[in-house]
Structure formats: C-alpha cells, structure tokens
Give the backbone structure.
Amino acid sequence: MKGLKMSGTINKFKIFLAIIFVIFLLSGGIPLRQHRSFKVDIVCGPGVTEIKKLSDFFPPLKGSMADTNVFVLQGKEPGGKVLVMGDTHANEPESLLSVLIMIENAVVEKGTVFLIPFFNHSASLNTRPGEGYPLYFSVTARWGKKTFRMGNRDASPLDQWPDPDVYIHYPEKQLLSYLDIRNTNRTWPGRKNGLPMEQVTYAAMELLRQERVELALDLHGAETMFPVTNCIVAPEKSMRIATLASLTVKSMEGFENHLESSPEKFRGLSHREIGDYSDTLPFLLEAPIPFLDQPTGPKTEKLFLDGQDEFLLSLAKEKKLFVPYDESGWPLEKRVGQHLSVSLEIIRQYSRKFPERSITIKNVPRYGEVIKNGVGFYFHNPAEASREKIVRH
Amino acid sequence: MIAKLIMLFYYLLCLFFVLITVKNLIEENSNLDRIILYFLTLIPFILRLLRFK
C-alpha cells in the first residue's frame, strides 16, 4: 500500500519535471530555430546586373548551407574587377552592413564589382553561446526598422562537424586551433575536397581566378583592446595602395586607419593567402567594435549600436586601448562609414595606378555622409520595392 | 564524405542516448535526484536531434 502511494508520487513528480523540461526546451529552442530561419530582405539597387551563387564557381557547394549569393555590379565600360566580402566573421556585422549599402545603392560606371554580403553564411545562422549576445539587431531606416541576424565568428556545428583535435592548415600544414576549421578567415586558400568552410574559401579563390579579379577586400571588426584594429592589413604586394588609401582618408576625411603588414608565417588569412595563391591584391579592413571587447558591460543591442561602455572608458583613461575612446564610444555609423570610405579609396588608388583597369563606382556614401545620415538611411523599404528586386538571405 | 558519415553516427548516437535515458527515466521509481539528472541529460541531445543547436 505504501509502495503504491510512493510510486504515484514519483509519477506525479516525473510529469511535473517533464512539463518543466518541455517549457525549458521550447523557450530555449524556438528562438534558436527562429534565428536560423530568419531572412534579411535585400533590395537590389540600380547597379546590380546579376546575382550569382558561390557554387557557380565551385559546384559541390550547391544546395548546402555554405553556399551564398554573389551580387554582380557590371559597369557599361570594361575595366578592373573588385570583390568585397562581408560577414566573414558574422559577429562583426558592420562588414555586412557596408556591403549591403553597396548592393542597395552603388552604380558602377566602369569595371565590375562582386559583392558577397554573407561570406560565411553558416556563421550568420549561428549564435554565440555563453556570452549573452543578442540574437538580432536593428537599424533605423527612413521607413522603419531593419532587422538583421547577429551571427557568430565560426560556422555552425550543425553545418560542419566534427572539428579535428588540431586543425592542420592546407596546404601550408601550419597547426591552428581546432575551432578555426570553421573560421573562413583561417581556411584560405581553401581545399577542393576539404570540409565545407575550406570549400567556401576555395570557391572564392576560384571566383578570383576565373574572373581575373584584381582587388579583394575582406571587411572585419576587432576589439579596441586588440592591437590589429582600426587598420588596413595588407601583404607586401598590396602595401603601396594601402598606404596611399590610409594617408588619403586621414588627410581628406579626418579619420585614422593605420597599416598593418600581413605576417608571412601566420597562415590561412585572406590578406596572406589570396595574395600568395592568386594575382589578386588582398586587403583586410578592421574597424573597432567595443561590443567584441571582453571587459564590457552586458552585450546588449545598444552597446553594439553606440559602442559606449563605461568599463572601456576607464580602460581608455589607463591607456589600455589601441584606439582613441571617449564618452561618444565608437558608434556603428563611424565603423560602417570607415569601411565604405577605405574601400572606395583603395579602389580609387588602384584605378589611378592602373587607369586602363580602373573601376568607377558612384552613389556609395563616404564616412562623413554615413555619420551625418546614419546607416539605416541607405536601406530601401522592401515593402515598396518590386518583387524581382528583393533577395531574401 | 568521412565527416558526413561521422555526423550521421553522431546523430544515431544522440538518438541512442535519448532512448536509453528515457528508458531509465521510466524505470526509475525511487531516486528523485536521478530523475532530475535524466531530464537534464536529455536537454543537449534533444536540442541536437531537433537541429536547434
């Protein structure tokens, strides 16, 4: 009799726990599921002449989460070619916003511009566990709010798993952290029969080789406490153009963007391998993102947008940061404006040096304009755009 | 190809752990701590099987 009573109590306890379990599972799981299926509406601007896939340059990627859109902006006049990549690290979304502003606004008069907004597409569908990152962020446009996914640095384990104990870079055989096998800025120049992220960079190398692209710009963001921030990273072959671009933005637009030399012995990075394994001149642009620093307050959407943090401010007073930092923080407008101006300046300097292969781009805002108008100002309302102009990504 | 096979085996392993844990959970009729532990153990396996995380 006592046993039966005990068994009944246990069963009630199990049912109670099962209900709690389902509540936890749904409240945690559904937002993650929604994030993975959330789409960003991109309104193609007047300059977009074709939308390709990365798999067009390397068919094995077709149909996988690693495949991504390549927006082509072909000028009326033939000229040079440039590739601009955003979201190589999807937790540095100023790169994504900069590329999207180009897609929605740029008009190319001479040459060809290839734009990849979600270079590591799988990482843009991933979330950052354990650090309390927001799942989304929004910018204010003239017509309302435009929302984007906040991704992670690495591709999702749902798309590429298992990781090796040690990642052996191909073809240089350098030993790297196991996690970097899912980091598309450690897998260059890629491997034809490698893991998906190695195939993504291999496909991008194929794009550069098949299309004979002259310039490759990889947009990023970095912590204010990290020395390689607020800079252009370039190998020897790109250094002259990078130097001229850095000096010009400083004198003409009044912002600092120093130069960093691409280390020869650190393998897998775009600024090193693209230059070594193709004729393309690579550049990696870093904008400071206070949100990425470790000693900050909560990782909120506000911190991401305005870059204002009291802990970083006190560290700045102790001269622990590698960028000037005051109460105004380091807002999104500044970061995106910087990426756009430096990208345009690199293209302009290249065009001056090689006039027969020059590239002329119009309608892309520069640093001062983005700061004045805000980032959202340059995004068009998908509700007002014609259906064929919208790409859901 | 090998990575895909390992991934498949991983999901099968997850399924096996879910089934064995649920079986133990149903059969456990005295120890409350173990029941709680079985529920906690199930969470990551189910999230993975449903491809949530």
The first strand of chain A starts at residue 41 and ends at 43. Chain A has ten helices and 15 strands.
